[in-house]
Design goal:
The chain is an alpha+beta fold. The protein has six helices and 17 strands. Helices cover 30% and strands 32% of the residues.
């Protein structure tokens, strides 16, 4: 239709601007209309040929040409190849044939001296016939599109009713099945973070989580500002993970407990954390604030592990997690140490330990951890204690000093708990300052599934950092 518009403007310009009468003025605009439609008809036939030859995947990548052919690709995607052998295509062919023939007669046959035939009248008649078939083509295309849309809507409604029916069955009778409807996922992924933190802010998609369609697990660096005593904030690019991509389509609140840990190329724990979250009915699952404090070089990170639990009640109340998903076939061999190793990481004192252990329902803590000492400036004993709080099972840090430091000592500690296959089951962190009088911040605690106490913890790992400077 844009060609008709330009031809009409051209026609008016010849009559009003140059004084042509209406019949002689038809020739120029008709020629323009003919070549205009001839060009786009040729391009369309080329696209049809390219479609059968499979060349559209190449053409769509071209910057300008790809934008021009995208409507045709969408049309072929909606209706398939049958669109080329339908009434819609027939009307299109008759329409273009009429417009091309009519404009050709008006533009090139108008100089005939025959008194029996008036080419302008025939040309206009054929041209109007082409316009008529073009209108039929567009009308038929809209009808087909509406019919296809109605079918899709009905199909979605059918699926929605089926889903609601199964959902009502699941949550009927005071929802007896919901309490057992929980799932734990474990993932391990090698990662290669760039050494420039400023190009690592966006999340990097890692894995798909099959709890619900289109739910993904990613990792990222999160710039976090920490206030310091001197009044100046310290910004750290902290590694973390993201879980997002869909919504909670259940009528119940979805609870999630996410434990994750990052490791160096030798498989040693660098940092870790656990966070619990809730997603209301119909809300987007967007667990995006999962990061661990990390004041070190990003290039040290080589891999991550993530343990994710979804349930319709508080994770700390779960006595059993019914299903395990993710990398379920993977097993890891963990090497243990006889005592903590003390070294340096980016110039900071680093105490590291990995040991085998046994945890049962009667365990009050991770056995044996309290006998070791971590740190060099101010050695401390650490414990991981299990307890019940508000009907939840929790794991809590505990720290004891051998003696008070002569100056404030800044510390940062991480733990990770593993099952017999070396898979991460829980993790946590704490940080603070040990003052000269021996006081330090409150020891943090994390929700913990009591089902993990039933012989599912076989190893623990500790990384403890300390410094006399406020860099942790």
């Amino acid at each position: 239709m844009f060609g008709f518009f330009l031809s009409f403007i051209y026609y008016l310009l010849l009559i009003l601007g140059f004084g042509f009468s209406w019949e002689p003025a038809l020739s120029g605009p008709a020629k323009f209309l003919f070549f205009w439609n001839l060009l786009f008809s040729f391009l369309f036939l080329c696209l049809v040929t390219a479609l059968f030859m499979g060349l559209l995947t190449i053409f769509i990548r071209l910057p300008f040409f790809g934008a021009m052919i995208s409507p045709f690709i969408e049309l072929a995607g909606k209706f398939g190849f049958r669109v080329l052998f339908s009434w819609t295509s027939l009307f299109w062919i008759l329409g273009f044939a009429g417009i091309l023939s009519g404009s050709y007669i008006l533009g090139f046959a108008g100089d005939t001296n025959s008194r029996m035939i008036n080419p302008n009248q025939i040309g206009l008649f054929v041209l109007l016939g082409g316009v008529f078939f073009q209108k039929l083509h567009r009308k038929n295309l809209k009808i087909n599109s509406k019919s296809l849309l109605d079918k899709k809507i009905k199909a979605k409604q059918g699926k929605g009713e089926e889903h609601r029916g199964s959902e009502n069955d699941l949550f009927a009778n005071h929802n007896p099945a919901v309490k057992d409807h929980s799932k734990m996922y474990w993932f391990e992924q090698e990662i290669h973070p760039p050494h420039k933190e400023e190009v690592s802010i966006d999340a990097i998609a890692v894995r798909n989580i099959n709890w619900i369609e289109n739910l993904i697990l990613g990792w990222r660096l999160v710039p976090v500002s920490f206030p310091e005593e001197n009044g100046q904030d310290v910004i750290m690019n902290c590694p973390g993970i993201i879980i997002t991509g869909n919504k909670n389509d259940s009528p119940q609140t979805l609870h999630s407990l996410v434990s994750f840990a990052f490791y160096d190329k030798e498989g040693r724990l660098l940092c870790s954390h656990t966070q619990e979250d809730e997603t209301g009915p119909g809300d987007c699952i967007a667990l995006s604030h999962l990061w661990a404090r990390y004041p070190f070089d990003v290039g040290l990170i080589s891999s991550l592990q993530a343990n994710i639990v979804f349930a319709y009640e508080r994770i700390g109340k779960l006595k059993n997690i019914s299903v395990l998903g993710g990398d379920i076939k993977t097993k890891k061999t963990l090497e243990t140490l006889t005592a903590p190793k003390i070294g340096f990481l980016d110039g900071l004192i680093w105490s590291y330990l990995r040991k085998a252990t046994q945890v049962s329902l009667d365990s009050a803590s991770v056995a044996g951890l309290e006998q070791y000492r971590f740190g060099k400036i101010c050695p401390v004993a650490l414990e991981l204690k299990f307890s019940r709080f508000s009907d939840n099972t929790i794991v809590r840090w505990s720290m004891r000093l051998e003696k008070n430091p002569v100056a404030p000592v800044y510390y940062l500690a991480f733990y990770a708990l593993y099952d017999q296959d070396g898979k991460l089951r829980h993790s946590g962190s704490m940080n603070g300052t040990i003052e000269k009088d021996g006081s330090f911040a409150m020891e943090p605690w994390f929700d913990f599934s009591s089902g993990l106490l039933a012989g599912q913890i076989s190893y623990y790992e500790i990384s403890y950092y300390e410094s006399e400077k406020p860099v942790l």
